[in-house]
Amino acid sequence: MDSTSGGRDTGTRTRILRATYEVLSRTGYGKLSLSDVATQAKISRPTLYRLFSSKEDLLAAFGEYELRNVEAGLRRVVAGLTGAERLDAVLRFIVESQSSYRLSSLVQIEPDHVLSQMNRVVPMMRALLEPLVPHGDPVVVAGAVVRLAVSHYLVGADDQAEFLAQLRLAAGISGSDQPS
Asked: Which residues of the chain fall below pLDDT 70?
């Protein structure tokens, strides 16, 4: 049984998904092999195939795993905060996450795949941010923040402080102060 059915393989499944992250950061999606993931996870191929019947199944589960990690991170950084302070915590989370996210190398390895994934990810990220926007039109503010974050993910270049300042401007806040 896997984690979606509450079974005992939750630890193994998580190990596989973490290993998928490691392998993807080295090889990209096109060259991802289930054998490499099994080796990275230190499990047998039959164990991997018992939980994920195909590369597509594994990648779909990996996408869900990544989304759950982002959601958990957002919940953690906004706990106990309200208003502009909560939104600023989210913006800092975005900057910190992108600076440490090793899959950003995929932009160079497989730009077409990354761009196609952005069509799927942008609406999901906007939907996660909208409820955290304390002022203005949450759809517009969240959309601007997500698109700016995607731009930095794809192109990079600015340092973390400048990236955060740009996100704050797009969100209509200055520092951790009130909305401007």
From this structure: 1-8, 157, 175-180
C-beta of residue 51 within 8 angstroms of C-beta of residue 11:
no
In a domain, 74, yes or no: no
pTM over 0.90: no
Does any domain span residue 125?
yes
Owning domain of residue 57:
1-61
Q: Which of 61, 89, 109 is the last residue of a domain?
A: 61
Give the integer Cα–Cα distance in Å for 165 and 33: 40
- Residue 135: phi and psi, rounded to 5, are -150, 165
By C-alpha distance, which of 160, 151, 14 is closest to 92?
A: 160
Report the CATH number at residue 38.
1.10.10.60
Q: Tell me whether residue 165 is in a domain.
A: yes
